[in-house]
Amino acid sequence: MAAIYNGVVFGGLGVFSKNIKYQLPHLVWQFPDIKGIHPGSINVQLQEHLHITKYDCTTLPIPWLEVDDSGQILGWRFERFSFLKIQFEPMGGQLYRAWIMDCHHSATFHNDPTRFEIISEKIAGVANGQRCKLHVL
Coil, strand, or helix at residue 105? Predict the structure, then answer.
């Protein structure tokens, strides 16, 4: 049975979308389950705390190029990433296969039990301020 957490989608800074193209081949190599995900993320602010005690996968340190807002390459970074399989439910009732992705150096998400970065297939119509649910198995 899944625990269901209510949340709201919020806008990010676009850091994930700029850098995922450099990270994704390394992530898929270490965690093939995420092959075919959309190269972007959905940021979710939960109404209650979600404490994750065990992930499905935590990668070895992955090298990736950090890119700023203008597209300027800032340099190589090394970071671990953890994944937890969930189901994401935007309002409307359809469940999508998804993962919480914990980027260990993220000041916005890492160690905050109410803010999570979600990766999945492309989901049309997800917008900032939209209510959603995370189904954690």
Answer: coil
